[in-house]
Amino acid sequence: xxxxxxxxxxxxxxxxxxxxxxxxxxxxxxxxxxxxxxxxxxxxxxxxxxxxxxxxxxxxxxxxxxxxxxxxxxxxxxxxxxxxxxxxxxxxxxxxxxxxxxxxxxxxxxxxxxxxxxxxxxxxxxxxxxxxxxxx
Length: 136
Description:
Blueprint: H1 25-46, H2 50-64, H3 79-99, H4 103-121
Helix pairs in contact: 1-2, 1-3, 2-4, 3-4
């Protein structure tokens, strides 16, 4: 009545399943955490926060085994938007760091979240009132 299936099903195991490398959960979390920290580093460098950027770069280097590429590329994004982006990235890094029980990165991410929260909550600096030349 029906023609038999002549091709292998996608559900049958591959003949050589061991031919490609597999990563452990810890390796996957290391890769994910390094990615979040590298993105946070880019925003931190754009905000010109040197000391914080250096601490983040140390952790990326520890996770990847090589120092991260750092650039001085600047965008025209306002500082408030950059602080919000950095806060979100630090939050993602904190979640992954907690998942893999990396205390050093979890503390660093929490500190960065606090710093960016303070920067977001701080009122914008008021412009100095302009004075006309010759005015009293």
